Every structure is written in structure tokens, then in C-alpha cells.
TrEMBL record:
The gene is era. Gene3D superfamilies: 3.30.300.20, P-loop containing nucleotide triphosphate hydrolases (3.40.50.300). Pfam families: KH_2 (PF07650), MMR_HSR1 (PF01926). An essential GTPase that binds both GDP and GTP, with rapid nucleotide exchange. Plays a role in 16S rRNA processing and 30S ribosomal subunit biogenesis and possibly also in cell cycle regulation and energy metabolism. This is GTPase Era. It comes from Skermania pinensis.
């Protein structure tokens, strides 16, 4: 059953220069590349594109380049890279099929392992069109020895569009379950608030969808940066239901369910925005709002 869940999350390709990361990204997202994020203040990741599948949404992001430090790198730079690497769901390490795995590749792998031990890893053998079939097996073996037997390796050619489906399938399988972060399937100009409301609604309906058919609407009341902190957003949201019995369902025993909803939604929103948030959720009864044009207007329908 778990495999039938929709999955979504952030994926980044890392690797030495010229290993084919950009070409691969372009091949995966097609024409929809280079749509930059509309929220430069809050997004720490530059979104390179979105790959949509019936069962998953992959958001391909750039991460700060890994450079082998010739000089002593400060702790802060390491922290930044560590944060970013831990925030993505999957890191795909690109190694070209036609070059021997070298110290540069090993150094990057070691950094990834060290900085983001929790982040899922995939090996991508790129440019396989440049080598003969017989050369592929030893290279796969060599990469497997470096990256470990538990990490899946996918050989691809971006230029020939060879095996890209498999790559997307493997990446998608490693994403956490969750709704599409970009619901319309593309990067949209939809205001963040609509997406946030969507994510809260999803979380609130989880597991109780049958008991609350269509009776639930979410309104974001306020989004404000915390005064003394640049890295924290306060988000205040209202969950509207139609009857007090529904309110009880959403809140749960002793507020337990609402807290769960809050945690789930907060994580999703943080992933969407790339920033920490404090999510304040309240549940209100708006009697029969679905039949009341005034209320509907207020709720953004
Ligand atoms: N034959 C072949 N060439 C490829 C393939 N993918 C990338 N290349 C070539 O490899 C070179 C480097 O590709 P990029 O996609 O720019 O590599 P990158 O890793 O993004 O490089 P940086 O931006 O420097 O980190 C380019 O000349 C590409 O045309 C492939 O699948 N097959």
C-alpha cells in the first residue's frame, strides 16, 4: 500500500564540473527549465525544474557548489552546505561513465556522506553513450564499491535520453510521501499563501477524509517574519469546518490530532519555502459555509 502513496520532494545532482548535471536536469524537466523561484527572500534553493509523474513530483534544486578547499574553509561555509544537503530529500551523485573515478569524485562522495548522513543517495552514471557496453559493467562495479552496496546506481545518457525513466522512478521511490508541492504540476506564480493553505488542508484531511467530505477550508490569516529573527516566519492559519462535530474530529483528543496536522503541514511548508516557520493553527466553525456565498467569498472560493 505504501508504494501507492503520492511522493514529493527535493532532489539535487552533485558531482564534479562537467559530469553532465545540467544536461541531465534539462533532459528531465524538458522545456520547463530555468523558471526561477518567485521568492528569492525565502528560498535557499534555486529551483531548476519540476518533474511530474502520476505518482510523484520531483523538484530539482541547485545546491551550493562543493569546492575542494585549497585553503581552510570556515565553519560557516560548512554549516551552509550541511544545511542545504540535509534539507533535500535525495542527493544524486553524478559520475561520468567515460572517466575513471578519481579523487575529486571520492572527495565529493565523502563530503555528502559526512555533511548529510541522513539524506538518501543515488549514484548516476552519466554519458553512457560515450562508452561501449563492455566498459559499463566495470565502471558500475567501481562506483558501487565507492558508494556502497545499498545505494542504487542508474546508468543514463542525457543526450540519448537513455534510461531517464528509470532514473526518475528510482529518485521518486526515495522521496517522502506527501502532496505535490506545486499542485498544478508546474512551477506556478500562485502566491505562497495558496500553496500553504493547500498543504494544511491536505494534512488536516489525512486519515479523516471520509468524515469531512469537502467540509474543510483553510485560510492563511497572516504571514510575518519574526521580528528578531530573519530565518523564521510566523504563519497564522484558520481551518474552517461546517459543524462543531467536525471541529472535534480535526482537533482530536486533547488537541493531539491538530498538533499532528500542524507538524505535518509545517514540515511541508518549510520544504516549500526553504525557511523555518512557526505555524499557528486554529479551527473555526463556519456554519454551512459551502452554501453561503458571503462565506465562500471570504474563504477564497
Ligand atoms: N555524450 C554525452 N555528453 C554529455 C551527456 N551529458 C552531458 N554531456 C556533455 O558533457 C559536458 C558537460 O555537461 P554539463 O551538463 O554542462 O555538466 P555539469 O556537470 O552541469 O557541469 P558544471 O556546470 O561545470 O558543473 C557538456 O559538453 C555536455 O554536452 C551525455 O549524456 N552524453
Amino acid at each position: 500500500m505504501a508504494d501507492e502513496q503520492f511522493r514529493s520532494g527535493l532532489v539535487c545532482f552533485v558531482g564534479r564540473p562537467n559530469t553532465g548535471k545540467s544536461t541531465l536536469t534539462n533532459a528531465l524537466v524538458g522545456e520547463k527549465i530555468a523558471i526561477t523561484s518567485s521568492r528569492p527572500q525565502t528560498t535557499r534553493h534555486t529551483i531548476r525544474g519540476v518533474v511530474n509523474r502520476p505518482d510523484a513530483q520531483l523538484i530539482l534544486v541547485d545546491t551550493p557548489g562543493l569546492h575542494r578547499p585549497r585553503t581552510l574553509l570556515g565553519q560557516r561555509l560548512n554549516d551552509l552546505v550541511r544545511d542545504t544537503y540535509s534539507e533535500v530529500d535525495v542527493i544524486a551523485l553524478c559520475i561520468p561513465a567515460d572517466e575513471k573515478i578519481g579523487p575529486g569524485d571520492r572527495w565529493i562522495l565523502q563530503q555528502v556522506r559526512q555533511l548529510a548522513p541522513e539524506t538518501k543517495l543515488v549514484g548516476v552514471l552519466t554519458k553512457i553513450d560515450k562508452v561501449r557496453k563492455q566498459q559499463l559493467a566495470p565502471q558500475l562495479l567501481a562506483l558501487s564499491e565507492q558508494i556502497g552496496p545499498d545505494v542504487e546506481i542508474v546508468p543514463v545518457s542525457a543526450t540519448d535520453r537513455d534510461n531517464l525513466d528509470t532514473l526518475v522512478r528510482v529518485l521518486a521511490s526515495l522521496l517522502p510521501p506527501g502532496p505535490a508541492l506545486y499542485p498544478d504540476g508546474e512551477l506556478t506564480d500562485e502566491p505562497d499563501e495558496k500553496l500553504m493553505a493547500e498543504l494544511i488542508r491536505e494534512a488536516a484531511l489525512e486519515g479523516v477524509r471520509d468524515e469531512l467530505p469537502h467540509s474543510l477550508a483553510v485560510v492563511i490569516e497572516e504571514v510575518r517574519p519574526r521580528e528578531d529573527r530573519t530565518d523564521l516566519l510566523d504563519v497564522h492559519a484558520l481551518i474552517y469546518v461546517e459543524r462543531s462535530s467536525q471541529k472535534a474530529i480535526v482537533i482530536g483528543k486533547g488537541g493531539a490530532r491538530l498538533r499532528e496536522v500542524g507538524t505535518t503541514a509545517r514540515k511541508q511548508i518549510e520544504r516549500l519555502l526553504g525557511t523555518k516557520i512557526y505555524l499557528d493553527l486554529h479551527v473555526k466553525v463556519a456554519k454551512d459555509w459551502q452554501r453561503d456565498p458571503k462565506q465562500l467569498g471570504k474563504l477564497g472560493f
